[in-house]
């Protein structure tokens, strides 16, 4: 049993903490408010991870330090740099493997499937924040100051995921209502299951072959939002889904009142064309096979619907 320290208790941090705890590891999860999943092997600590001294003290003796944090979307340029610096310092001081949860923003618009060798060509503000974070960690790794790896995922599906499917599509599909989405409804898109992110993080943290580079989370074959909605409706026993594309001017108007919607405009290109993640490298290296999409959709249904709440919930939960 070794100590594993996780910063962040969102869907990925929670899934990673539970996975490690179920494997018999000692887990310490750090958030500003001391939140996190309840488990006998999980210690929840309230602390500010931007404080390198405090984070170092909490990470001393740990085998790995997982960055599963996610500041408010519109505050990435201000909140990420001090948090990333705190994590780098703690990893360097303690020797814990810095294992970062990343995304695909850095690649920008791409024609064809994205691999780990796809150039980081995006010039968007949010993408550049994440690119700099990884480059600083990679530079420190190459200089021998620490050991680091990054695990990159596409848009999440699964319990608790704050993504377009989970927020805008699936709740309305399960309820038999029309969903309005700022996306090409028929463009194939890679959807990454939260549980597979956790599995890949844990594998990368403990495998020397993973250190010093980025990896794509094993992800099921891409499907369009329309197909995803159709599968979700079938699982839930809901009517045939009704989807409509939200016009870009409406999104822009919404951005006047909601900072998250305003920031979303920067990455809408991901939903205007095929958005394909190639996860061959991680699948072959770690032996992780992506969870079938229907399993992720069923989990989403079960996590969002109280037990016994109607025929659709019963069908979706297999009761």
From TrEMBL:
Residues 7-207 form the NAD-dependent epimerase/dehydratase domain. It holds the Pfam family Epimerase. This is NAD-dependent epimerase/dehydratase family protein. It comes from Micromonospora echinofusca. The lineage of its organism: Bacteria, Bacillati, Actinomycetota, Actinomycetes, Micromonosporales.
């Amino acid at each position: 049993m070794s100590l594993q320290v996780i910063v962040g208790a969102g869907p990925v941090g929670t899934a990673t903490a539970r996975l490690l705890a179920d494997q018999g590891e000692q887990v310490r999860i750090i958030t500003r408010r001391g939140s996190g999943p309840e488990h006998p092997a999980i210690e929840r600590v309230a602390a500010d991870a931007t404080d390198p001294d405090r984070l170092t003290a909490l990470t001393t003796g740990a085998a790995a330090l997982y960055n599963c944090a996610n500041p408010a979307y519109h505050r990435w340029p201000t909140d990420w740099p001090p948090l990333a610096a705190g994590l780098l310092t703690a990893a360097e001081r303690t020797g814990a493997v810095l294992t970062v949860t990343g995304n695909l923003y850095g690649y920008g618009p791409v024609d064809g499937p994205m691999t780990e060798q796809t150039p980081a060509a995006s010039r968007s503000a949010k993408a550049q924040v994440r690119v700099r974070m990884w480059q600083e960690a990679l530079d420190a790794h190459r200089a021998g100051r620490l050991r680091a790896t990054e695990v990159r995922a596409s848009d999440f599906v699964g319990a608790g995921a704050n993504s377009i499917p989970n927020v805008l599509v699936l709740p309305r599909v399960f309820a038999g209502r029309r969903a309005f989405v700022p996306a090409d409804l028929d463009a194939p898109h890679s959807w990454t299951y939260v549980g597979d992110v956790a599995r890949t993080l844990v594998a990368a943290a403990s495998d020397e072959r993973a250190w010093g580079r980025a990896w794509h989370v094993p992800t099921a074959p891409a499907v369009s939002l329309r197909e995803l909605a159709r599968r979700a409706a079938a699982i839930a026993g809901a009517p045939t889904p009704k989807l409509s594309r939200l016009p870009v001017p409406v999104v822009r108007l919404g951005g006047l009142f909601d900072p998250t919607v305003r920031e979303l405009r920067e990455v809408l290109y991901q939903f205007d064309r095929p958005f394909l993640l190639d996860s061959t490298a991680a699948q072959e290296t770690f032996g992780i096979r992506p969870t079938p999409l229907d399993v992720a959709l069923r989990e989403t249904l079960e996590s969002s619907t109280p037990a016994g709440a109607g025929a659709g919930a019963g069908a979706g939960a297999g009761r």
